[in-house]
Write a structure and sequence with these properties.
Length: 446
Protein backbone atom coordinates (compact mmCIF):
# COMPACT_ATOMS: atom_id res chain seq x y z
CA UNK A 1 0.00 0.00 0.00
CA UNK A 2 1.08 3.62 -0.60
CA UNK A 3 1.35 5.61 2.62
CA UNK A 4 1.89 9.34 2.51
CA UNK A 5 4.32 10.92 4.94
CA UNK A 6 2.97 13.04 7.79
CA UNK A 7 4.50 16.13 6.16
CA UNK A 8 2.75 15.48 2.86
CA UNK A 9 -0.58 14.89 4.60
CA UNK A 10 -0.10 18.07 6.63
CA UNK A 11 0.63 20.11 3.47
CA UNK A 12 -2.44 18.74 1.70
CA UNK A 13 -4.58 19.61 4.73
CA UNK A 14 -3.11 23.14 4.73
CA UNK A 15 -3.97 23.75 1.06
CA UNK A 16 -7.42 22.20 1.50
CA UNK A 17 -8.12 24.39 4.54
CA UNK A 18 -6.92 27.51 2.70
CA UNK A 19 -9.16 26.74 -0.28
CA UNK A 20 -12.20 26.27 1.96
CA UNK A 21 -11.51 29.52 3.81
CA UNK A 22 -11.02 31.36 0.50
CA UNK A 23 -14.28 30.05 -0.96
CA UNK A 24 -16.26 30.72 2.23
CA UNK A 25 -14.85 34.24 2.64
CA UNK A 26 -15.57 35.10 -0.98
CA UNK A 27 -19.13 33.82 -0.82
CA UNK A 28 -19.80 35.71 2.41
CA UNK A 29 -18.44 38.95 0.95
CA UNK A 30 -20.32 38.85 -2.34
CA UNK A 31 -23.52 37.67 -0.64
CA UNK A 32 -23.51 40.44 1.97
CA UNK A 33 -26.61 42.69 2.06
CA UNK A 34 -26.55 45.65 -0.28
CA UNK A 35 -27.20 49.14 1.07
CA UNK A 36 -29.54 51.44 -0.75
CA UNK A 37 -26.64 53.49 -2.03
CA UNK A 38 -25.11 50.34 -3.56
CA UNK A 39 -28.08 49.42 -5.76
CA UNK A 40 -27.38 49.05 -9.44
CA UNK A 41 -28.88 51.69 -11.70
CA UNK A 42 -29.45 51.69 -15.41
CA UNK A 43 -29.57 54.55 -17.89
CA UNK A 44 -32.62 53.88 -20.04
CA UNK A 45 -31.31 56.37 -22.58
CA UNK A 46 -28.07 54.48 -23.02
CA UNK A 47 -27.22 54.05 -26.66
CA UNK A 48 -28.17 50.57 -27.76
CA UNK A 49 -25.12 48.63 -28.86
CA UNK A 50 -24.94 45.95 -31.48
CA UNK A 51 -25.44 42.42 -30.19
CA UNK A 52 -22.37 41.18 -32.04
CA UNK A 53 -18.71 42.19 -32.31
CA UNK A 54 -16.08 40.97 -34.74
CA UNK A 55 -12.41 41.87 -34.87
CA UNK A 56 -8.92 40.52 -35.00
CA UNK A 57 -5.77 40.93 -37.01
CA UNK A 58 -3.73 39.54 -39.90
CA UNK A 59 0.02 39.25 -39.34
CA UNK A 60 2.99 38.78 -41.61
CA UNK A 61 6.42 38.35 -40.03
CA UNK A 62 9.88 37.77 -41.44
CA UNK A 63 12.87 36.63 -39.39
CA UNK A 64 16.58 36.17 -40.00
CA UNK A 65 18.59 34.44 -37.28
CA UNK A 66 22.26 33.59 -36.95
CA UNK A 67 22.65 30.07 -35.56
CA UNK A 68 24.82 29.64 -32.49
CA UNK A 69 26.82 26.79 -33.98
CA UNK A 70 28.32 24.47 -31.41
CA UNK A 71 25.86 25.35 -28.65
CA UNK A 72 24.21 22.55 -26.71
CA UNK A 73 20.67 23.22 -27.89
CA UNK A 74 21.75 23.75 -31.49
CA UNK A 75 23.32 20.29 -31.55
CA UNK A 76 20.40 18.74 -29.68
CA UNK A 77 17.58 20.30 -31.70
CA UNK A 78 18.87 20.81 -35.25
CA UNK A 79 19.37 17.78 -37.45
CA UNK A 80 21.79 19.60 -39.77
CA UNK A 81 24.80 20.89 -37.79
CA UNK A 82 26.04 22.85 -40.81
CA UNK A 83 23.17 25.35 -40.80
CA UNK A 84 24.60 28.79 -40.02
CA UNK A 85 21.50 30.95 -40.54
CA UNK A 86 17.77 30.46 -40.33
CA UNK A 87 15.30 32.46 -42.43
CA UNK A 88 11.60 32.27 -41.64
CA UNK A 89 8.41 33.69 -43.09
CA UNK A 90 5.42 33.51 -40.78
CA UNK A 91 1.78 34.39 -41.39
CA UNK A 92 -1.21 34.24 -39.07
CA UNK A 93 -4.77 35.41 -38.63
CA UNK A 94 -6.68 35.83 -35.38
CA UNK A 95 -10.44 36.24 -35.23
CA UNK A 96 -12.27 37.56 -32.16
CA UNK A 97 -16.04 37.41 -32.07
CA UNK A 98 -18.87 37.71 -29.60
CA UNK A 99 -22.66 37.65 -29.74
CA UNK A 100 -25.05 38.72 -26.98
CA UNK A 101 -28.65 37.65 -26.64
CA UNK A 102 -30.50 38.64 -23.50
CA UNK A 103 -28.56 37.39 -20.48
CA UNK A 104 -26.40 35.06 -22.60
CA UNK A 105 -23.33 35.64 -24.75
CA UNK A 106 -21.06 33.57 -26.99
CA UNK A 107 -17.35 34.43 -27.16
CA UNK A 108 -14.88 32.94 -29.64
CA UNK A 109 -11.23 33.50 -30.47
CA UNK A 110 -9.68 31.51 -33.34
CA UNK A 111 -6.14 31.51 -34.67
CA UNK A 112 -4.47 29.97 -37.71
CA UNK A 113 -0.76 30.24 -38.48
CA UNK A 114 1.78 28.90 -40.96
CA UNK A 115 5.56 29.13 -41.21
CA UNK A 116 8.10 28.41 -43.93
CA UNK A 117 11.72 28.38 -42.81
CA UNK A 118 15.08 26.94 -43.80
CA UNK A 119 14.11 23.53 -42.44
CA UNK A 120 10.59 23.21 -43.84
CA UNK A 121 6.89 24.04 -43.54
CA UNK A 122 4.70 23.99 -40.46
CA UNK A 123 1.18 25.16 -39.69
CA UNK A 124 -1.40 25.05 -36.93
CA UNK A 125 -4.95 26.04 -36.07
CA UNK A 126 -6.08 26.84 -32.54
CA UNK A 127 -9.29 27.58 -30.73
CA UNK A 128 -7.94 29.93 -28.09
CA UNK A 129 -11.38 30.48 -26.60
CA UNK A 130 -14.96 29.36 -27.21
CA UNK A 131 -17.39 29.68 -24.32
CA UNK A 132 -20.97 30.57 -23.46
CA UNK A 133 -21.79 32.94 -20.60
CA UNK A 134 -24.99 33.57 -18.67
CA UNK A 135 -25.47 36.67 -16.51
CA UNK A 136 -28.78 36.30 -14.66
CA UNK A 137 -27.93 39.26 -12.39
CA UNK A 138 -25.38 42.08 -12.64
CA UNK A 139 -23.43 40.47 -9.80
CA UNK A 140 -23.30 36.87 -11.03
CA UNK A 141 -21.94 35.31 -14.24
CA UNK A 142 -21.68 31.65 -15.23
CA UNK A 143 -19.68 30.36 -18.19
CA UNK A 144 -18.91 27.04 -19.84
CA UNK A 145 -16.31 26.31 -22.48
CA UNK A 146 -12.72 27.09 -23.38
CA UNK A 147 -11.45 30.25 -21.74
CA UNK A 148 -8.05 31.94 -21.46
CA UNK A 149 -6.99 32.99 -17.97
CA UNK A 150 -4.65 35.83 -17.02
CA UNK A 151 -4.22 35.47 -13.29
CA UNK A 152 -1.47 37.55 -11.75
CA UNK A 153 -0.16 41.10 -11.95
CA UNK A 154 3.24 40.38 -13.50
CA UNK A 155 4.00 41.63 -17.01
CA UNK A 156 6.53 39.00 -18.12
CA UNK A 157 5.82 36.14 -15.67
CA UNK A 158 2.96 35.01 -13.44
CA UNK A 159 3.97 32.59 -10.66
CA UNK A 160 0.35 32.66 -9.40
CA UNK A 161 -1.06 31.89 -12.87
CA UNK A 162 -2.05 28.39 -11.83
CA UNK A 163 -4.46 28.03 -14.78
CA UNK A 164 -2.59 30.31 -17.20
CA UNK A 165 -0.60 29.29 -20.23
CA UNK A 166 3.07 30.27 -19.99
CA UNK A 167 3.78 33.73 -21.41
CA UNK A 168 6.55 34.55 -23.84
CA UNK A 169 8.41 37.42 -22.08
CA UNK A 170 9.35 38.81 -25.50
CA UNK A 171 5.64 39.03 -26.46
CA UNK A 172 3.76 38.96 -23.13
CA UNK A 173 0.63 40.64 -24.49
CA UNK A 174 -0.11 38.03 -27.17
CA UNK A 175 -3.32 36.05 -26.75
CA UNK A 176 -2.86 32.50 -25.43
CA UNK A 177 -4.85 29.30 -25.67
CA UNK A 178 -7.25 28.65 -22.80
CA UNK A 179 -8.62 25.64 -20.95
CA UNK A 180 -12.12 24.14 -20.89
CA UNK A 181 -13.76 25.10 -17.59
CA UNK A 182 -17.07 25.56 -15.84
CA UNK A 183 -16.79 28.97 -14.20
CA UNK A 184 -18.81 31.05 -11.75
CA UNK A 185 -18.12 34.73 -11.05
CA UNK A 186 -19.67 36.77 -8.26
CA UNK A 187 -18.99 40.46 -7.63
CA UNK A 188 -20.04 43.00 -5.02
CA UNK A 189 -19.19 46.71 -4.66
CA UNK A 190 -19.46 49.25 -1.86
CA UNK A 191 -19.44 53.01 -2.34
CA UNK A 192 -18.48 54.21 1.15
CA UNK A 193 -16.16 51.58 2.50
CA UNK A 194 -12.44 50.84 2.72
CA UNK A 195 -13.24 47.59 0.92
CA UNK A 196 -14.61 48.91 -2.37
CA UNK A 197 -15.02 45.70 -4.40
CA UNK A 198 -14.94 41.95 -3.82
CA UNK A 199 -15.17 39.34 -6.55
CA UNK A 200 -14.98 35.56 -6.39
CA UNK A 201 -14.09 33.37 -9.38
CA UNK A 202 -14.52 29.59 -9.15
CA UNK A 203 -13.40 27.42 -12.06
CA UNK A 204 -13.88 23.66 -12.39
CA UNK A 205 -11.20 22.29 -14.74
CA UNK A 206 -11.51 18.63 -15.80
CA UNK A 207 -8.65 16.69 -17.38
CA UNK A 208 -9.82 13.85 -19.60
CA UNK A 209 -8.50 12.16 -22.73
CA UNK A 210 -9.45 14.90 -25.17
CA UNK A 211 -10.17 17.75 -22.75
CA UNK A 212 -7.34 19.76 -21.19
CA UNK A 213 -5.07 16.74 -21.66
CA UNK A 214 -1.94 18.94 -21.54
CA UNK A 215 -2.83 20.44 -18.15
CA UNK A 216 -1.59 17.47 -16.11
CA UNK A 217 -2.58 14.01 -14.93
CA UNK A 218 -5.71 12.75 -16.70
CA UNK A 219 -9.01 11.44 -15.32
CA UNK A 220 -9.08 14.17 -12.69
CA UNK A 221 -11.29 17.15 -11.89
CA UNK A 222 -9.52 20.23 -10.51
CA UNK A 223 -10.82 23.31 -8.75
CA UNK A 224 -9.28 26.78 -9.08
CA UNK A 225 -10.54 29.81 -7.16
CA UNK A 226 -9.57 33.49 -7.01
CA UNK A 227 -10.81 36.10 -4.56
CA UNK A 228 -10.28 39.68 -5.75
CA UNK A 229 -10.36 42.58 -3.30
CA UNK A 230 -10.08 46.30 -3.99
CA UNK A 231 -9.07 47.68 -0.59
CA UNK A 232 -8.09 51.35 -0.22
CA UNK A 233 -6.97 51.53 -3.87
CA UNK A 234 -4.89 48.36 -3.56
CA UNK A 235 -5.76 45.47 -5.89
CA UNK A 236 -5.35 42.13 -4.08
CA UNK A 237 -5.95 38.58 -5.34
CA UNK A 238 -5.90 35.35 -3.34
CA UNK A 239 -5.71 32.14 -5.40
CA UNK A 240 -5.83 28.42 -4.86
CA UNK A 241 -5.62 25.34 -7.09
CA UNK A 242 -6.65 21.94 -5.79
CA UNK A 243 -6.84 18.59 -7.55
CA UNK A 244 -4.52 15.82 -8.62
CA UNK A 245 -3.64 16.89 -12.18
CA UNK A 246 -1.04 19.33 -10.87
CA UNK A 247 0.52 20.03 -7.51
CA UNK A 248 -1.86 21.91 -5.25
CA UNK A 249 -0.98 25.60 -5.00
CA UNK A 250 -1.85 28.76 -3.10
CA UNK A 251 -0.87 32.31 -3.97
CA UNK A 252 -1.53 36.02 -3.73
CA UNK A 253 -0.79 39.12 -5.76
CA UNK A 254 -1.18 42.87 -5.38
CA UNK A 255 -0.81 46.10 -7.29
CA UNK A 256 -1.13 49.73 -6.27
CA UNK A 257 -0.05 53.20 -7.33
CA UNK A 258 2.54 54.83 -5.07
CA UNK A 259 2.18 57.99 -7.18
CA UNK A 260 -0.05 58.99 -10.13
CA UNK A 261 2.37 57.44 -12.66
CA UNK A 262 4.24 54.97 -10.47
CA UNK A 263 2.78 51.49 -9.93
CA UNK A 264 4.21 48.60 -7.93
CA UNK A 265 3.06 45.00 -8.20
CA UNK A 266 4.00 41.62 -6.87
CA UNK A 267 3.10 37.94 -6.71
CA UNK A 268 3.89 35.07 -4.36
CA UNK A 269 3.07 31.38 -4.85
CA UNK A 270 3.54 28.40 -2.57
CA UNK A 271 3.38 24.82 -3.87
CA UNK A 272 3.67 22.31 -1.01
CA UNK A 273 4.47 19.28 -3.19
CA UNK A 274 6.12 20.54 -6.36
CA UNK A 275 7.42 17.76 -8.62
CA UNK A 276 10.59 18.28 -10.64
CA UNK A 277 12.67 15.99 -12.86
CA UNK A 278 16.28 15.92 -11.65
CA UNK A 279 19.38 14.42 -13.24
CA UNK A 280 21.41 12.13 -10.99
CA UNK A 281 25.15 11.46 -10.99
CA UNK A 282 24.77 8.24 -13.00
CA UNK A 283 22.78 10.18 -15.68
CA UNK A 284 19.51 8.57 -14.64
CA UNK A 285 16.65 10.80 -13.52
CA UNK A 286 14.23 10.94 -10.65
CA UNK A 287 11.20 13.01 -9.71
CA UNK A 288 11.79 15.04 -6.57
CA UNK A 289 8.91 16.45 -4.55
CA UNK A 290 9.61 19.52 -2.42
CA UNK A 291 8.01 22.62 -0.96
CA UNK A 292 8.43 25.42 -3.51
CA UNK A 293 8.07 29.18 -3.17
CA UNK A 294 8.11 31.55 -6.16
CA UNK A 295 7.77 35.32 -6.20
CA UNK A 296 7.77 38.35 -8.46
CA UNK A 297 8.20 42.04 -7.68
CA UNK A 298 7.90 44.76 -10.29
CA UNK A 299 7.33 48.41 -11.03
CA UNK A 300 5.80 50.38 -13.89
CA UNK A 301 6.63 54.07 -14.25
CA UNK A 302 5.54 56.68 -16.80
CA UNK A 303 7.80 59.73 -16.91
CA UNK A 304 6.91 63.27 -17.97
CA UNK A 305 8.65 62.55 -21.30
CA UNK A 306 6.31 59.61 -22.01
CA UNK A 307 8.96 57.01 -21.23
CA UNK A 308 7.34 53.85 -19.88
CA UNK A 309 9.60 51.72 -17.70
CA UNK A 310 8.72 48.19 -16.61
CA UNK A 311 11.17 46.34 -14.38
CA UNK A 312 10.52 42.95 -12.76
CA UNK A 313 12.51 40.53 -10.64
CA UNK A 314 11.36 36.91 -10.75
CA UNK A 315 12.38 34.15 -8.37
CA UNK A 316 11.41 30.80 -9.85
CA UNK A 317 11.49 28.39 -6.92
CA UNK A 318 10.65 25.47 -9.18
CA UNK A 319 13.55 26.18 -11.52
CA UNK A 320 16.98 24.60 -11.75
CA UNK A 321 20.02 25.93 -9.95
CA UNK A 322 23.17 26.84 -11.88
CA UNK A 323 24.74 23.57 -10.69
CA UNK A 324 21.75 21.51 -11.84
CA UNK A 325 21.86 23.14 -15.27
CA UNK A 326 25.60 22.44 -15.43
CA UNK A 327 24.86 18.74 -14.88
CA UNK A 328 22.55 18.80 -17.89
CA UNK A 329 25.08 20.55 -20.12
CA UNK A 330 27.75 18.05 -19.10
CA UNK A 331 25.41 15.17 -19.97
CA UNK A 332 24.84 16.65 -23.42
CA UNK A 333 28.55 17.22 -23.97
CA UNK A 334 29.25 13.61 -22.97
CA UNK A 335 26.66 12.49 -25.51
CA UNK A 336 28.29 14.54 -28.27
CA UNK A 337 31.68 13.05 -27.42
CA UNK A 338 30.26 9.53 -27.36
CA UNK A 339 28.79 9.74 -30.85
CA UNK A 340 27.40 12.22 -33.33
CA UNK A 341 24.92 9.64 -34.56
CA UNK A 342 21.33 9.83 -33.32
CA UNK A 343 20.08 7.06 -31.09
CA UNK A 344 23.02 6.92 -28.68
CA UNK A 345 22.15 6.51 -25.02
CA UNK A 346 23.52 9.79 -23.61
CA UNK A 347 22.19 11.93 -26.46
CA UNK A 348 18.75 10.36 -26.09
CA UNK A 349 18.90 10.97 -22.34
CA UNK A 350 19.87 14.63 -22.89
CA UNK A 351 17.02 15.18 -25.35
CA UNK A 352 14.60 13.48 -22.96
CA UNK A 353 15.67 15.67 -20.02
CA UNK A 354 15.46 18.75 -22.24
CA UNK A 355 11.78 17.99 -22.87
CA UNK A 356 11.17 17.24 -19.20
CA UNK A 357 12.23 20.66 -17.98
CA UNK A 358 15.85 21.56 -18.67
CA UNK A 359 15.06 22.92 -22.13
CA UNK A 360 11.97 24.96 -21.30
CA UNK A 361 12.05 28.78 -21.48
CA UNK A 362 13.64 30.38 -18.41
CA UNK A 363 14.50 27.13 -16.60
CA UNK A 364 16.64 28.88 -13.98
CA UNK A 365 15.76 30.52 -10.68
CA UNK A 366 16.68 34.22 -10.76
CA UNK A 367 15.65 36.57 -13.57
CA UNK A 368 15.43 40.27 -14.30
CA UNK A 369 13.14 41.73 -16.95
CA UNK A 370 13.29 45.36 -18.07
CA UNK A 371 11.43 47.18 -20.81
CA UNK A 372 11.79 50.86 -21.67
CA UNK A 373 9.78 52.54 -24.43
CA UNK A 374 9.07 56.13 -25.40
CA UNK A 375 6.10 57.46 -27.31
CA UNK A 376 6.93 59.78 -30.23
CA UNK A 377 10.34 61.12 -29.12
CA UNK A 378 11.59 64.34 -30.74
CA UNK A 379 8.06 64.86 -32.15
CA UNK A 380 8.42 61.84 -34.45
CA UNK A 381 4.74 61.10 -34.88
CA UNK A 382 3.47 57.52 -34.53
CA UNK A 383 6.98 56.23 -33.75
CA UNK A 384 7.76 54.47 -30.46
CA UNK A 385 11.29 53.12 -29.89
CA UNK A 386 12.09 50.80 -27.01
CA UNK A 387 14.43 48.21 -25.61
CA UNK A 388 13.79 44.93 -23.76
CA UNK A 389 16.33 43.11 -21.60
CA UNK A 390 15.99 39.62 -20.14
CA UNK A 391 18.80 38.52 -17.82
CA UNK A 392 19.56 35.26 -16.04
CA UNK A 393 21.03 36.66 -12.83
CA UNK A 394 22.72 33.40 -11.84
CA UNK A 395 24.86 32.72 -14.90
CA UNK A 396 24.93 36.37 -16.15
CA UNK A 397 23.70 35.46 -19.66
CA UNK A 398 21.17 37.72 -21.33
CA UNK A 399 19.04 38.78 -24.27
CA UNK A 400 18.79 42.45 -25.28
CA UNK A 401 16.25 43.54 -27.91
CA UNK A 402 16.01 47.11 -29.20
CA UNK A 403 12.85 47.73 -31.20
CA UNK A 404 10.83 50.40 -32.93
CA UNK A 405 7.04 50.43 -33.50
CA UNK A 406 5.31 52.56 -36.16
CA UNK A 407 1.51 53.13 -36.22
CA UNK A 408 1.20 55.93 -38.75
CA UNK A 409 -1.00 53.98 -41.16
CA UNK A 410 -4.64 53.47 -40.14
CA UNK A 411 -5.25 50.02 -38.60
CA UNK A 412 -1.64 48.99 -39.22
CA UNK A 413 1.23 48.33 -36.81
CA UNK A 414 4.82 47.76 -37.94
CA UNK A 415 7.49 46.52 -35.55
CA UNK A 416 11.20 46.05 -36.20
CA UNK A 417 13.47 44.52 -33.57
CA UNK A 418 16.89 42.93 -33.27
CA UNK A 419 17.63 40.43 -30.48
CA UNK A 420 21.21 40.09 -29.28
CA UNK A 421 21.75 36.93 -27.25
CA UNK A 422 24.96 36.36 -25.33
CA UNK A 423 26.47 34.30 -22.53
CA UNK A 424 29.38 32.10 -21.69
CA UNK A 425 29.72 28.36 -22.16
CA UNK A 426 27.13 26.34 -20.25
CA UNK A 427 24.93 29.37 -19.57
CA UNK A 428 21.27 29.66 -20.54
CA UNK A 429 21.60 32.22 -23.33
CA UNK A 430 25.10 31.10 -24.30
CA UNK A 431 23.67 27.69 -25.24
CA UNK A 432 20.61 28.93 -27.17
CA UNK A 433 20.04 27.96 -30.80
CA UNK A 434 20.21 31.60 -31.96
CA UNK A 435 23.02 34.05 -31.36
CA UNK A 436 20.91 36.94 -32.67
CA UNK A 437 17.69 37.48 -34.57
CA UNK A 438 16.30 40.24 -36.80
CA UNK A 439 12.50 40.45 -37.03
CA UNK A 440 10.09 42.60 -39.02
CA UNK A 441 6.40 42.26 -38.22
CA UNK A 442 3.34 43.86 -39.81
CA UNK A 443 -0.15 43.58 -38.33
CA UNK A 444 -3.42 44.78 -39.80
CA UNK A 445 -6.23 45.14 -37.26
CA UNK A 446 -9.88 44.97 -38.26
Amino acid sequence: MNYESKGTVHRRITVSLFSKILLLSGLLLVAAPVNGSDEFSFDLEEIEKKPYQLGGYVELRGEHADINQGSVFTRLNLTDPNISTMDSLYGSIQLDGSYEYGISSLNVQLKAAAQQDTIGWSDLTLVNAAYVSLQPTPSATFSLGKKSYKWGKGYAWNPVGFVNRRKDPNNPEDALEGYVTLECDFIKSWQQSALQTAALTIAVLPVWDDINDDFGESDEVNLAAKLYLLYRDVDIDLMVLTGNSRSESIGLDFSTNLAPHFEIHGEAAYIPSFKKNILKEDNSSSIEENDTFSALLGIRYLSENDVTSIVEYYYNGGGYSEEEMADFYQLAEAGFSQSLEPGTDLLDRAREMSLKGYGRPQPGRHYLYAKFSQKEPFDLLYLSPGIVALINLEDQSYSITPEVVYTGVTNWEFRLNFSMIDGGSHTEYGEKVNSNKLELRARYFF
